Amino acid sequence: MGRLRWLWPLALAAALALGPRGLHALRPQRSLAIVVLDKTVPFPTYVEHRSLFWLLDHLKIVRPGGGRYDPSRDYLGAFPGPRPGDRPSRTVDLTEEAARAADLLYLADTYGVYEDDLESGPAMRAALERSPKVYGGLSLAEAEAAVRAVARGTTLVAEFNTLGSPTAPPARTALETALGVHWTRWMGRYFSRLEDRDEVPEWLRRDWEREWSARWEFTGPGYVLLRDDTHCEVLLPGRHVEEVGLTIERERPVDRLLAEAGDGTSYPYWFDLVEARPGTEVLASFSWHLTDAGRGRLERRGLPARFPAVTRKRSPSGGAAYYFAGDFADNPLERPPVPLAGYLRARRALERIKIAPSEGAFYWRFYAPMMTRLLDELASRGGRSERPGAGRRGGIAARPGRSERACSLAGRTDRAASG
């Protein structure tokens, strides 16, 4: 009996330690055809889509036919050269075939690769100055392929910077119609140190100095709003906004997609200001926390204190088009997968203690819960790849060889163009 009295605490400790790992191992794999378009890959860091692939791996979402999604191969767009600083080894545009076969079509980033991005070489730092474009922008053919895919039942997710430069107006208009939003041409970003020349672009400083006829002498954190190269506004914590000046809030009643996402989540990166068109659902909104001075600043610009962050436009076919009005999947997540059941919930709880805008807090508290629910809903319907007449190339469209040829390299744009 004495020996048993000592064994049960050890058994309990072992169960607590090994249980989450065992439960995760027992979770079944689920197959979804996912096509990710990311044209902003100057270096093999894949920062614009790697956090999405981390989540796919954690949730055991696999390619049609089996196999984990690989962030270095299973996407469309720009593929970095063999050495940091080399021009893209190849570029693969979104095709009608790839879009049609997808359960989820995710437009992560279409800003592109530019000449000066490649100048840093092994340092792998994106340039802060504008330079000639190597590859980028959503083409009209790609936009139309995405629109038709939604009409046939595909779920589309588009993020900042899909609507902005260098995407041309015809492609932007087609995508805006599918998403049910209108881009106001205003965008913004939070900077933790406005004096940091390694983070704040010089062109942004010049825009502000040109409009205000004064020198850029800001220090500390702040939010910058800009429209084209004409208007630039700076909102400072304590003067124009509260300490956390911009948060994401779920609209009421809370949609199922955001049931686990956190209200009051601070947003730390690029975002744009869009308007929802009639028939488009606003699931979550960016909300400014303003002082009287800040409220006056926005009113003079004709800018709202609350504007859409996550929208959804449903298609009669059962498809849906979501717009995430920020660089949501751009995240410095580098850690390997964590094979523990309950890990996402635990991280979400831990991140609640962070007050200052943080990419980590946003990812774990808002993006990961939202995307988990979306992926779960798609998986519960059964993948298009399992339906008659649907191919399996959507999820492996960027793999070299046969599947790459299936996507066609007709849209390859290796020549430099003016940015």
Quick one: overall form? globular
Strand order of the largest sheet: 5-4-2-6-9-18-17-16-13-14
Number of helices in the DSSP assignment: 10
Radius of gyration from the CA trace? 22 Å
Distance between the termini: 78 Å
Q: In percent terms, what proportion of residues is strand?
A: 15-25%
Helical fraction: 25-40%
H/E series = HEEHEEEHEEEHEHEHEEEEEEHEEHHH
Structural class: alpha/beta
How many DSSP-defined strands?
A: 18
Q: Give unreliable regions as ranges.
A: 385-419
* Rounded average pLDDT: 86
Biggest sheet layout: 10 strands, mixed
Walkthrough of the structure:
With about 425 residues, the protein is an alpha/beta fold. Strands 5-4-2-6-9-18-17-16-13-14 form a 10-stranded mixed β-sheet. The longest helix has 25 residues.
Summarize this structure as a short list of keywords or feature phrases:
disordered C terminus; alpha/beta; 10 helices; single chain; 419 residues; 18 strands; 10-stranded mixed beta sheet
Gist of the model:
With 419 residues, the protein is an alpha/beta fold.
Secondary-structure map with pairings?
Elements (H helix, E strand, L loop, with lengths): L1 H25 L3 E2 L2 E5 L11 H9 L2 E2 L13 E4 L10 E3 L3 H5 L3 E6 L3 E2 L18 E3 L4 H12 L3 E5 L9 H11 L1 E11 L10 H11 L9 E6 L3 E5 L5 E10 L14 E2 L4 E6 L4 E10 L1 H10 L4 E9 L5 E5 L18 H8 L8 H23 L20 H6 L12
Parallel strand pairs: 1-3, 2-4, 2-6, 6-9, 9-18
Antiparallel strand pairs: 4-5, 7-8, 10-11, 10-15, 11-12, 13-14, 13-16, 16-17, 17-18
